[in-house]
User: Fold this.
Amino acid sequence: MTNRRQFIQSGLVFSTLPLTEFAAVKMAVAAPAGPELTLENFVADRRYAESMAAASKLGAQGVPVVEISGDLTDLWINNYSRKWKRSPMTLAGLTGQDALFVLETLAPDFGMRVVHKQVLDAPSSPTVLSTSDGKPQVFSWIIAPKNSAYAAI
Assistant:
């Protein structure tokens, strides 16, 4: 698994990417010093090119990547529902609002919280959950244990 230091260092790779992709990792750079926090998964949403590009870069750095297509049902049933019952975990992602809403709603029941959430415009993505101006939205986010060193948003 990738520890917090390795995750932050992997952000250097993103400095050469477009701003929307870089923002997916920028969220980890501001983390305060404290106990090491293991990033257990990066959730990539196949509907968004930005998300898949970030997943590719993070995967190459050794970060475990899980892919979804907006629907979290399989991921929840076959993975997170079991893991979260055993202990809280830290995960990050670049997904649509729909996927993030599900995870941030479930997280508090398992001792976790959203510690970073930033909306990104995704002009190269298909129109999915568009805003009033017609642009789809992608969110970069981190969910971590409630007692982690990360500051709440």
Strands lie at 39-45, 65-68, 90-95, 112-121, 137-145.
